[in-house]
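Board notes, transcribed. Complex of a protein with pyridoxal-5'-phosphate.
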Amino acid sequence: MDASLGSSAPGFETLAIHAGQEPDAATGAVVPPIYQVSTYAQDGVGGLRGGYEYSRSANPTRDALQECLAALEDPSGAAAGTTRGLAFASGLAAEDTLVRTVCAPGSHVVIPDDAYGGTYRLFDRVARPWGVDYTPARLTDVAAVRAAIEPGRTRMVWIETPTNPLLRVADIAALAAVAHEAGAILVVDNTFASPYLQQPLLLGADVVVHSTTKYLGGHSDVVGGALVCNDPELGEQLAYHQNAMGAVAGPFDAWLTLRGIKTLAVRMDRHCANARAVTDLLVDHDRVSEVFYPGLAGHDGHDVAVKQMRDFGGMVSFRVVGGQDAAVAVCDRARLFTLGESLGGVESLIEHPGRMTHASAAGSPLEVPDDLVRLSVGIEHLDDLVGDLAQALG
Ligand SMILES: *Cc1c(COP(=O)(O)O)cnc(C)c1O
């Protein structure tokens, strides 16, 4: 961060635009250039000019993104150099690197009983055959999470909050204490909230995971992932594995993600406002049997969300009267809400989790209701969004 910004800690919006992004030393370019390069000339063997030797190990555009991510999740830890960000080719690449750094064959992890389907698939089909087993637990029930831990063997308690797709809210501070009591770390997938709405490291978590594909990138034009860690020793091991396993973010992807992050705060404010208005339509609708949104006073995670989040986010799920066929028909009738997977972009999306994003969880403890519809509420004009949903519901 530029010292000229003054001694008091810069605000979130300022960090989003400037952290890790000094004007380019060589040219004065105000945004970090895309260093689309694999290798760097050396002045004599080992004589590195700018500290760079090969772009899997380090690249200036990726470094800018990594510093920015660390500052957004933990401003003072990033300034002190103890919190570090690492950017990966995708959210799942980040998750895989974390699992293989913290766990070994014989380890155990606690995972959510509602989670991104790909995260479940990683634990079930990749980590488990490697020798790491897991227990799914209801994250809203602290005692259930404690009971799922196997002392001595559990290395990680892995949570998502709010969860995908049921928007359950886990108490980060309480679960950090439970994990730490048992000698495990708490990992928080912060994709749904983004660091603008929630900063898990400041609540006691050890590692934050992101699919930067979603709100951080924000424009549905790049796939990426990140880890942010405030333990210097674990951060060092993760960085070692980032290079040794090699699932890094490319320079252009890092640049697109940085560009998206600059407007994260203003986008999130509008995502939240639009989502709130959409829930107003849904809760009163006779074709809707249940609405999941942490901003609703009747949602069971509402009080915890108020305590640990700035606002309630842009994701809304609901159950449609009439079962799976009726839910699929709502998805098919929507026009402005584009039928598609993913979330967190400026454009609104609608999907049927049971047959789309969460199809890989069918038959597992993470199976989702078949009458569920999930919305990623975008930042189009509110009247257009509400009008489209009203017509799609029929
Ligand atoms: C999309 C997503 C992931 C996976 O990220 P990719 O970038 O698709 O690999 C992980 N967690 C959550 C909550 C997600 O929504």
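The chain has 14 helices and twelve strands. The first helix runs from residue 12 to 18.
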